[in-house]
Design goal:
With about 300 residues, this protein is of the alpha+beta class. It is built from nine helices and 18 strands. The protein has three domains: about 100 residues, no CATH class; about 110 residues, ATP-grasp fold, B domain (D-amino Acid Aminotransferase, Chain A, domain 1), CATH 3.30.470.20; about 60 residues, no CATH class. The protein is globular.
């Protein structure tokens, strides 16, 4: 009997989320193919048709796969895009994505849908069409218009990457921030467009994790936390398992509308009793959540990847 192709995991082998899924896959009797642009760049690659050979070995298809991340955070990020190393980096990413789009692989979330679903504007428009409450939002750099639509005190979020390297090589992180538009706003002073949203007072933060058609919900008391709870180290260890069926059901509907089957979504249960959708990350983290959620999500993801082998 021919052994079926192993699952394919696209992500950094040193990423703890990839590591935990790989452990589960091996417990299930399969040794997955793990690759990303950085690992590919250290060897040889041949792509023709939908066939991919890595280091002289063919990546077997058809298979099931999960796309976690194309390359490790910061991989050659200090290289100027128009430099030789920048062009080399781009070539490896393009080679990988070219295969992702043509491979005979059933991806948990297809590459094109995964990338498209990362758009904040698309997420909010899709949620609005589904009747899911979202904050009033303006995207742009016209602060007068923002103040006219949303008022003086607003939440400001980066439209592009929240983590980047400045000209001096320093890694900077721009969190969601409460700003007063009557004062000089250093975040918008660059002239770049940002996401501006109405300020909604949070009573509880809710995180929903989706794997295929399953959901898990956890909550975090918002008392004394910054606007962006990720800025608090304590917050990451303070979530509690809950049974928020409304948030779970709405997140699943939104994932289906966006065409993705795995995601981590953030909601707030506001002080006036509204459940409001904030954003969704198709490659979001879950291992900081309490047990049994963290373990169950990992097992569910690995189990889906193994189903085609049964």
């Amino acid at each position: 009997m021919i052994e079926p192709p192993p699952p394919i995991v696209v992500g950094d082998a040193a990423d703890v989320h990839v590591e935990e899924v790989v452990v589960q896959l091996r417990r299930g009797g399969s040794d997955p193919v793990v690759l990303d642009a950085a690992s590919l760049s250290s060897g040889t690659l041949s792509l023709y048709g939908d066939r991919l050979d890595v280091a002289g070995a063919q990546v077997r298809q058809p298979a099931r796969g999960w796309i976690r991340r194309l390359a490790p955070h910061g991989w050659r990020s200090t290289m100027a895009s128009d430099s030789h190393e920048g062009a080399r980096r781009a070539a490896w990413v393009v080679a990988l994505t070219s295969w992702l789009e043509t491979a005979r692989v059933e991806w948990l979330s297809p590459f094109a849908e995964l990338i498209a679903s990362e758009s904040r504007h698309r997420q909010l428009k899709s949620a609005h069409r589904l009747g899911i409450p979202v904050p009033r939002t303006v995207i742009g750099n016209d602060l007068d218009r923002v103040a006219e639509e949303l008022g003086r005190h607003v939440i400001c979020k980066p439209l592009g990457p929240a983590v980047f390297v400045d000209e001096g090589g320093e890694v900077l992180h721009v969190p969601a921030t409460l700003v007063d538009l009557a004062e000089i706003n250093p975040l918008a002073a660059s002239g770049a467009p940002f996401v501006f949203q109405e300020r909604i007072s949070a009573r509880v933060h809710v995180r929903v994790v989706v794997v295929n058609d399953r959901t898990w919900t956890c909550q975090l008391d918002a008392t004394s936390l910054p606007v962006d709870w990720r800025e608090s180290d304590l917050a990451h260890a303070s979530f509690e398992v809950c049974d928020d069926r409304e948030a779970a059901k709405s997140t699943l509907r939104l994932c289906r509308a966006l065409g993705v089957r795995t995601a981590s979504a953030d909601w707030i249960d506001s002080s006036d009793g509204r459940l409001v959708f904030l954003d969704l990350n198709p490659g979001g983290q879950w291992l900081f959540l309490p047990e049994p959620v963290a373990g169950d999500v990992t097992v569910a993801l690995a189990s889906w990847l193994l189903e085609a082998r049964v």
